[in-house]
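Input sequence (496 aa), recorded before submission:
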Amino acid sequence: MQDRGPARCDVGLPLLGMLLLSSAWAGAATAPPPTDAATAGTVEAGLEQLVDDALAANLELRAGQATVAQRLAALDQARALYLPALDLAARYSVADGGRTIELPVGDLLNPVYETLDELLVASGRPPQFPRVRNETVEFLREQEQETKLVVEQPVYEPRLGPAVDASREELNRTSANLEALRTRVVRDVQQAYYQWLAGQQAVLVLEATREVAQANLDANESLYRNGRVTRDLVYRAEADVLEVEQQRIAAASRVRIAQSYVNLLRNAPLGTTLPTADIDGATVERYRERLVRRLAGRTPDTSLLQEIATGRRAELRGLDAAVAGGEARQDLARAAFQPRVAFGAEAGVQGEEYGFGEDERYVLASVILRWNLFRGGADRAALREARAYTDEVRAARELAAQQVRLEVQQAVENLEVADASLETALKRTEAADGAFRIASRKRDLGQINQAEFIDARRAMTDARLNLNRVRAEFLARVAELEYAIGGPGSPQEPTS
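Predicted structure, token format:
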């Protein structure tokens, strides 16, 4: 069959059939995305469930909680040094050899004894004094045991207080970091869920659009078989169907990735089903009203919100604790220059055999003074290190405060842009839907060519996808602003 000139529909096709086809196109294009009434709920209800799951099971939060537990245990260890330490010590030794000392007892006493015996014999009496051998004393006993209780109690230990302070501030820092992580997890769950919902709605829009494109292809194939249009119109309609299908496949992939990320955040199998909901105009209005309530009826004021954020952000409280910990480290380094006094006592038994006689029992008590006089400059170097660490953390805190202010500014501006885009996107969708309905009727009457019809369809699809994206973007920007000012809750003006 030869091509038949301009790419237009022949008016000679039965008008009733074309009107029915036009009605099918317009209905599929303008009908709202289908939802499951039995399962679909509000965005807020679905989000609450997901956030609760994430806060209870998120692996990163679990690791942060373990870190806090470590710091709490370290603080208990530091406090325990104030209390006395009681130990049971036992020793049993077997020795062979070692150093000895020679005692010339015989050389000293035997001449005297001999003289005394001679005097006794001269007086007619028998000798009475024995002969003594020299003694060899070994320093190590062949067998020896010692069993004792040892108690130690610091009396004056200047390092204990700073060590406890440093451990306490480290606990405060890790606790603040855990709170900041919890706030970030909430934000990430919110934004990922909004992205998943928007992706689902995009898939529904593209599926409806594919039905329109497929209906257009079927109509053109029918017209071509009846010799009413040329082959190029069929190719163009087929390309349109494939274009929409390609977009649908990409959108479905993004939905699966978003679903997996939400499940990752809540430590669930990546393919777990998420609660369904629609991000519609009513949802956007509820979020807008909630934001107004949070701001006490005020419009977002960047300067005020920046001050609120610098007082509420857990990251800054964590850095404040780090600064305080650095100062405690300085005090700990200075304590090395001061004397230390401790009391020690031990009581037990010792000897070659176990026993509790007077020769085995003993008690020893001591007061110990230690004063560091010289360590080659190591203590002064430790003090310099602690000062440098404090300066580093203090500078990091100032930088973080500036970054928080910038985050608030960006969040406010992004929210304003998203809010301003809502009405524009809605009007764009209404205009594109109306234009497509008109284009559909004109196409049925043969008043426009295939390219104009497909352009109208593409404009309608783009407008619907853009509306879904803008609505989800608005909800995400609300979550970003809430995170920037310190998480959910009613922000209060900073007190002077």
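Checked by second reader. The first strand starts at residue 85 and ends at 94.
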